[in-house]
Amino acid sequence: MGFLDNLDNNLKSLESREERGRGRDRDHAVRDAERARVRATAPYVEQLRKGTFTAELLNEATRIGHGLRTKVYITWLDNTLRLEARDHRVELKPTAEGVVAQYFVNKQPTRQERVDLNGSARKFAEKWMSSVGPRPNVASPE
Question: What is the pLDDT of residues 107-131, one digit of tens each?
Fold first, then answer.
């Protein structure tokens, strides 16, 4: 019986090593894919974080928001730039193909489009802020 128990233990040990090896291979593949994604998005991340488009966008959104008497909240979430005004939000996310703007109303995604970081940030801000709309008229108590 000792020989059979020893053989059984050896087989179980080999099987568990194979399973751990497969798990490590999967982990390596996931890490490699993540590294490739980061490398592919790096130029767009840099351009979004430090480019003139972003600086102009922040200035224009703030200026337009002031005219609408609306506070524009600006937040960086990792590499994503988020602008919020009232119940509207736009998130600029770098991808391997470029920067994508995703629009939300009441926290529900409404649409998505590619952003030209060499284009006009003013037009982009005006287009987004026009969806926020004018401040509703509030009747003053008499």
Answer: 999 999 999 999 999 999 999 999 8
CA distance 42 to 49: 11
Fold of 47-132: Copper Amine Oxidase; Chain A, domain 1 (3.30.457)
Measured CA to CA, the distance from residue 105 to residue 113 in angstroms comes to 15
Query: 96 by DSSP, 3-state: which?
Result: coil
First-to-final CA distance of the chain:
98
Strands (E), 7-139: 72-77, 80-85, 88-95, 98-105, 108-115
Q: Give the residue from 85, 105, 102 showing the smallest Cα distance to 94.
A: 102
pLDDT for 58 equals: 96
Domain ranges of the chain: 47-132
